């Protein structure tokens, strides 16, 4: 009987020693409080976390370890908890903070476990300092926000370009249907579809591939020393987006023309000033060494549709720039008279082969010697449509290897009382 008691005593002693070791060497802070909230025990880790000695804490209320702004409510929560105590974790779904002896705060996770002895009801709190985890979470959150922002920006750009492309394709499809009803020639329609698919797939693939590759590479340049590389790829993206915009504008213009949404609305234009400003604007797109020479003669003010005139000149000048060598000039001559305005755009570029000259204004047509120069084959078709909308005519002469000159003749005619709607629109548009 005595030996059994001795064995039990030794077992209990070992258990007490183990519990004492666990209490003292635990990596979590342990604070034991009475039902009233009075601190009765703290382990070394808790003293380390809070910066107190054991004597400073024993007998104090648990609210001593809680920031003042939470202390009052904590006492109420503690009383409610003690009415139905249970094991529970805290700080996983909400942010909890503890207060050190110097008044500083730090984020914590707390687990509560109630127990009862002959001395009454107690709660043991296991406290973990999660400052490092919070810092890492903040860094991850900031990085995720930045990634989300970049993804959102890219998605918006892609969505915008996709929407514009879908709109352009819609317009083209509608224009193709008009061609079917007007011409009733299935062979010509199929040929037009084939040309469009080939040109669209080629013209869109190149700039989109440039945007994708440059956007991917930008993400790899994280240091200040890589700024030049980043700017280089930003410039490539801007250039590709500009190219896409020009292509989409061509497609949209064709759609609007087919639908009859474009009208010629003459307004009073200072021809010399208008053309000089446009030439100056286009000069910025010239190759190194290229110059545009502008000459105006005749009267200053004429009645023309400014937007259509701008598109005509811009398209003809852009072609002259694209198909001319770097050192060859481009000439723009304007003769404005009381009844007509004559425009010449002359380049010294590659010229148009004789066998292609009869088709040069056809939609999607590109001369055999165009090579790798980007283009949709829509520009001159749109120019001719705009000239005809303005009641004018366009022609050209070209010699292979020596250049091309386009001649545009437009009537100088005011929007009169016979069409008051156009006259009113012209006033508001000007």
Structure description:
With 430 residues, the chain is of the alpha+beta class. The protein folds into three domains: 2-129, PAS domain (Beta-Lactamase), CATH 3.30.450.20; 135-259, Helix Hairpins; 267-429, 2-Layer Sandwich (Heat Shock Protein 90). It contains eleven helices and 13 strands. The protein has helices spanning 2-25, 44-50, 54-57, 68-83, 131-183, 186-218, 227-259, 271-283, 306-322, 379-389, 420-429, and strands at residues 29-34, 39-42, 88-90, 96-99, 105-117, 120-129, 267-270, 292-298, 301-304, 330-336, 340-347, 393-399, 403-411. Strands 1, 2, 3, 4, 5 and 6 form a six-stranded antiparallel β-sheet that branches. α6 runs antiparallel to α7 (227-259). This is histidine kinase. InterPro entries: HATPase_C_sf, HATPase_dom, His_kinase_dom, HisK_dim/P_dom, HisK_dim/P_sf, PAS, PAS-assoc_C, PAS-like_dom_sf. Its EC number is 2.7.13.3. Keywords: Coiled coil, Kinase, Phosphoprotein, Transferase, Two-component regulatory system.
């Amino acid at each position: 009987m005595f030996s059994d008691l001795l064995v039990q005593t030794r077992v209990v002693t070992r258990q007490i020693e183990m519990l004492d070791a666990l209490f003292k060497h635990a990596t979590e802070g342990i604070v034991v409080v009475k039902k009233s909230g009075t601190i009765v025990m703290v382990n070394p880790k808790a003293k380390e976390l809070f910066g107190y000695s054991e004597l400073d804490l024993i007998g104090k209320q648990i609210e001593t370890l809680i920031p003042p702004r939470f202390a009052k409510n904590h006492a109420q929560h503690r009383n409610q908890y003690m009415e139905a105590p249970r094991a529970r974790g805290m700080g996983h779904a909400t942010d909890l903070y503890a207060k050190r002896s110097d008044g500083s705060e730090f984020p914590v996770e707390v687990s509560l476990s109630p127990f009862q002895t002959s001395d009454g009801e107690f709660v043991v709190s296991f406290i973990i300092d999660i400052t490092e985890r919070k810092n890492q979470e903040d860094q991850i959150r900031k990085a995720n926000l930045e990634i989300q922002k970049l993804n959102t920006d890219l998605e918006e750009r892609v969505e915008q370009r996709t929407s514009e492309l879908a709109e352009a394709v819609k317009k083209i499809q509608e224009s193709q249907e008009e061609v079917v009803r007007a011409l009733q020639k299935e062979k010509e329609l199929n040929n037009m579809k084939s040309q469009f698919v080939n040109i669209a797939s080629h013209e869109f693939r190149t700039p989109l591939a440039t945007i994708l590759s440059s956007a991917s590479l930008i993400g790899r340049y994280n240091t200040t020393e890589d700024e030049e590389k980043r700017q280089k790829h930003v410039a490539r993206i801007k250039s590709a987006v500009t190219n896409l915009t020009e292509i989409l504008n061509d497609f949209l213009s064709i759609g609007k023309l087919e639908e009859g949404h474009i009208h010629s609305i003459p307004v009073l234009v200072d021809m010399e000033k208008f053309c000089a400003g446009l030439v100056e604007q286009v000069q910025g797109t010239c190759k190194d060494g290229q110059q545009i020479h502008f000459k105006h003669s005749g009267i200053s003010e004429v009645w023309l549709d400014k937007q259509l005139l701008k598109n005509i000149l811009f398209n003809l000048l852009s072609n002259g720039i694209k198909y001319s060598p770097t050192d060859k000039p481009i000439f723009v001559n304007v003769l404005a008279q009381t009844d007509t305005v004559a425009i010449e755009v002359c380049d010294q570029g590659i010229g148009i082969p004789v066998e292609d000259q009869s088709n040069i204004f056809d939609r999607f047509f590109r001369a055999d010697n165009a090579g790798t120069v980007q283009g949709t084959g829509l520009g001159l078709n749109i120019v001719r449509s705009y000239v005809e909308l303005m009641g004018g005519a366009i022609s050209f002469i070209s010699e292979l290897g020596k250049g091309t000159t386009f001649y545009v003749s437009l009537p100088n005619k005011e929007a009169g009382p016979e069409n008051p709607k156009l006259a009113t629109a012209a006033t508001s548009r000007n």
